[in-house]
């Protein structure tokens, strides 16, 4: 069952937040998967690397891979994710080799997109395998999907619409890729995939923490002059310390959003509301 999976643990294994700490982890993972050292990841390297991120820690050394999700093989999820991530970034260069790499590989800029897509397709693979009970070698029929309609409601799919996707009740006619594309198009239209760049707001809110104590501690640390408020300059200093590629303009935009009463300073109540927003 998809609800029996510890998705919080899955998310911890797949660093997708657009913040400096998780970007650094993505740098490490990309280097580990790039076995050829050419700054690109092939489908084979992705097939070898991505499933390892979701292996259970209690697996014995001699045992076949056992994952945090109830799937024996994650290669179809990797293949689907790779297919949508490999052209997120524009091509670098005009040579045949550059165009070939762009068409067949994922570069460092696209690695975030690969992880985001992999997470989505893994969830759909769990649902697909739960539905595929008749041993039809990875194809669903209507009767199998009908049993999963309550789970498909999360993906904005209703029974009548689903039934129309099949020629009859029992003919296996929907592959995993077709199933995944259908679910994603109904729920999202398409996956929102971005280049791997830190996001200023996400970075500073991540650094502030999510608990009351963490946020209080961050507020006190960032209020360098002890005035009981955070100034625009203090917020800018924090942001630039997280990632020097951020700009003063980035900080001013965040400050304007957090300074809700527009008095030129962020007090603790404003800070709490803004971070939690």
TrEMBL record:
One of the Pfam families matching this protein, by short name: EF-hand_7
Record-linked InterPro entries: EF-hand-dom_pair, EF_Hand_1_Ca_BS, EF_hand_dom, EF_hand_pair_protein_CML-like
Superkingdom, natural source: Eukaryota
Keyword Metal-binding: yes
Gene3D superfamilies registered for this protein in UniProt: EF-hand (1.10.238.10)
Entry keywords, A to Z: Calcium, Metal-binding, Repeat
Claim: Calcium is one of the keywords in the record: yes
Transmembrane segment boundaries: none
Molecular-function GO term, any one: calcium ion binding
EF-hand domain location: 210-245, 246-277
Designated name of the protein: EF-hand domain-containing protein
Organism: Alexandrium andersonii
Source organism phylogeny: Eukaryota, Sar, Alveolata, Dinophyceae, Gonyaulacales
């Amino acid at each position: 069952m998809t609800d029996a999976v510890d998705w919080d643990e899955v998310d911890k294994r797949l660093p997708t937040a657009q913040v400096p700490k998780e970007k650094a982890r993505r740098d490490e993972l990309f280097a580990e998967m790039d076995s050829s050292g050419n700054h690109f990841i092939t489908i084979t390297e992705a097939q070898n690397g991505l499933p390892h991120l979701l292996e259970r820690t209690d697996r014995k050394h001699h045992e076949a891979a056992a994952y945090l999700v109830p799937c024996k093989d994650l290669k179809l999820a990797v293949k689907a994710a790779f297919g949508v991530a490999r052209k997120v970034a524009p091509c670098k260069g005009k040579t045949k080799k550059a165009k070939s790499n762009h068409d067949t590989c994922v570069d460092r800029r696209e690695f975030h997109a690969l992880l985001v897509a992999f997470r989505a397709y893994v969830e759909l693979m769990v649902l697909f395998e739960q539905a595929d009970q008749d041993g039809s070698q990875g194809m669903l029929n209507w009767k199998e999907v009908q049993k999963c309609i309550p789970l498909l409601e999360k993906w904005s799919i209703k029974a009548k619409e689903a039934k129309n996707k099949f020629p009859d009740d029992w003919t296996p006619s929907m592959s995993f890729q077709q199933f995944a594309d259908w679910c994603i198009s109904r729920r999202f239209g398409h996956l929102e995939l971005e280049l791997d760049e830190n996001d200023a707001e996400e970075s500073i809110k991540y650094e502030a923490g999510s608990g009351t104590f963490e946020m209080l501690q961050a507020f006190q640390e960032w209020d360098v002059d002890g005035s009981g408020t955070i100034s625009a300059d203090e917020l800018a200093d924090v942001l630039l310390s997280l990632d020097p590629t951020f700009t003063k303009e980035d900080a001013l935009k965040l400050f304007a959003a957090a300074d809700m009463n527009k008095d030129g300073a962020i007090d603790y109540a404003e800070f709490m509301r803004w971070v939690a927003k």
